[in-house]
Specification:
Blueprint: H1 5-12, H2 14-30, E1 36-39, E2 49-52, H3 57-64, H4 69-86
Antiparallel strand pairs: 1-2
Length: about 90
């Protein structure tokens, strides 16, 4: 098993993630398009309402590529701890 598996997974999908992220940024900036989601129900018959989705691109990409942001953060802290120990500033 690799020492930092989540970072390795992230590195493996970097190119695909970059392209998807650029596309999502374009959608947000184009002004004519919106990503939407269904929520709750309306008062007219219980059908779900379609509303603009509120999201951070990084969060959406992490979900799509099944990357755990919490695991990434833990691995980053481990890396920093190792660097501090290696340089004698623990």
């Amino acid at each position: 098993m690799k020492k930092y598996p989540e970072h390795e997974r992230l590195s493996a999908i970097k190119d695909k993630s970059q392209v998807c992220g650029e596309f999502l940024e374009w959608l947000q900036g184009a002004g004519r398009y919106v990503i939407a989601e269904y929520i709750g129900s309306d008062r007219r018959g219980g059908k779900d309402l379609l509303v603009p989705a509120s999201f951070r691109i990084e969060t959406l990409l992490a979900a799509y590529f099944k990357i755990s942001r919490a695991k990434l953060e833990r691995e980053k802290r481990e890396m920093l701890d190792e660097l501090r120990k290696a340089h004698g500033s623990a």
